[in-house]
């Protein structure tokens, strides 16, 4: 399938061109438009338990949409927040995606929720990561622009957990505090993830948590006036 990504990096719009018989799967609510001759099917992928696990633990929608072309046509998608979209082709590979960054993918790719065990992400980013596995095209979204970092074998790189979009299954990772307890509580950074290569890490230039931390104190109080 061919695709184009326009209006990057602030207001990215993904357009996928499907030939007759081709399909693409997307997160519920991601669709912007589609041409005549495109059929849409909404279902709970992976069965009831799989969808519940992905929804409750992975932060994604319980239902997903599959678009199939009866005749050649385009389908367009956009992320919910102002930001970018990046394409990544998997060739019998594994890609871990942070909750909320999955936009769409080839129906041939397996989509599941992977538990990180002792190495999991703590805090509002969620305890679970989505796992894309197999061969096919995937499309990831972000809040802000996407920055790609290539790591050599043994190379280490530390990222605030709120800025992670995705990373290759070949990378190792550990989640830790910034410095000591004082830094964790008062530096404004919280928890970070240290990746060890080889592999690629995709980051987003803005953090929704940081934005909400700024926004919420600015909102008017609902307490009655004295």
TrEMBL record:
InterPro entries according to UniProt: AIM24, AIM24_sf, Trp_RNA-bd_attenuator-like_dom
Gene3D superfamilies noted in UniProt: Mitochondrial biogenesis AIM24
Pfam families: AIM24
Listed name of the protein: TIGR00266 family protein
